[in-house]
Amino acid sequence: MAFKKKSKVSAEFSMSSLTDIIFLLLIFFMLTSSLIIPNALNLKLPGKASSSPPSKSQPAIIKIERNGTYFYNGEKISLSGIESRVRTLKKGNKKTSIVVSANSDAAYEKVVAVLDLAYRIGVNAILAD
Q1: Cys-Cys link to 66, which of 23, 50, 89, 105 (CB 3.0-4.6 A)?
Q2: Residues 96-117 pLDDT 10s
Q3: DSSP alpha helices (H): ranges in the chain?
Q4: What was the pLDDT predicted at 26?
Q5: Burial of 82 (0-12, 13-18, 19+ CB in 10 A)
């Protein structure tokens, strides 16, 4: 009488293919993360720095209201008007500053637009609450 052998299912698997995939993913993420350039604002944080003393002139105050309207020293103005005024302010004094005061409910895009404008022109922007 011949007995049938039961075929056992082997629970083993090869780890070499798994490690190959992990190393390929590691290399891929290392290469792609070094190529990504963050698109962020260049903020100057308060702290100890060796710089020249601030200018004696008063900085221009730009207010942003809840509905997104801009005010330049109390006068209602558009974003392009702010740009032209800040450019003329920059021509008069190389170390000019502007103060950006935004309402807490104002859209972030409006605030970032003014800060980006100041960065492009080369003016120090101070964000006040």
Answers
A1: 105
A2: 888 999 888 888 898 899 989 9
A3: 16-35, 79-92, 108-121
A4: 94
A5: buried
